[in-house]
From TrEMBL:
InterPro entries: DUF1058 (IPR010466), SH3-like_dom_sf (IPR036028). Residues 1-21 form the signal peptide. Keywords: Signal. This is SH3 domain-containing protein. The lineage of its organism: Bacteria, Pseudomonadati, Pseudomonadota, Alphaproteobacteria, Caulobacterales. It comes from the Bacteria. The keyword Signal applies.
């Protein structure tokens, strides 16, 4: 076997592995898959009622503010292995430790007025309860422009465009 044929044979064996590695790197570079192996952007909820929001990914960076709401939905827009850059419902952008978040999906009613929670995903459906202004709710699912949420022990459907925490596009720049 000539050197060229041997090189071609070796290359054909390793080409799929090289392509796979290159594709993974491309996905990370495009912001689709982060070092955690999860998509970026994505929504998560804060686990604790006190979370430091920092200027950069590390404890040596200045604390910009402190989140004080367990369950607050935030959007991960960038990440390192241990840190997440998040966008919050007020448009704030900061770094938090990855371990202070969990995969629970929550949403927030950012408007001040209450929102009717419907028995079915349509405007003419019976109102079962109201989601208060600035309230956080657990997200079950969204379909057809409506989201099924749970808050205060009550479940219901609300218009998706009335909530923060469902839009897949990056919310902060």
């Amino acid at each position: 076997m000539t050197q060229r044929k041997a090189a071609a044979a070796v290359l054909s064996l390793f080409a799929p592995l090289l392509l796979s590695a290159c594709e993974k790197e491309a996905e990370v570079a495009k912001g689709r898959i982060g070092p955690s192996g999860l998509p970026v952007p994505r929504y998560v909820a804060l686990k604790f009622d006190e979370v430091n929001a920092r200027a950069g990914p590390g404890e040596d960076h200045k604390v910009l503010w402190v989140y004080r709401t367990t369950g607050l939905p935030v959007q991960v827009v960038a990440e390192t292995r241990d840190w997440r850059r998040v966008c919050d419902p007020e448009g704030g952008l900061a770094w938090i430790k990855g371990r202070v978040t969990d995969g629970r999906r929550t949403v927030m009613r950012v408007a001040d007025k209450p929102l009717a929670m419907r028995a079915q995903p349509k405007l003419e459906a019976k109102t079962d309860a109201y989601l208060s202004g600035q309230a956080i709710a657990a997200l079950d699912r969204c379909e057809g422009g409506w989201c099924r949420v749970k808050a205060g022990g009550r479940k219901g459907w609300v218009p998706e465009n009335e909530l923060w925490g469902t839009d897949p596009k990056t919310q902060c720049r």
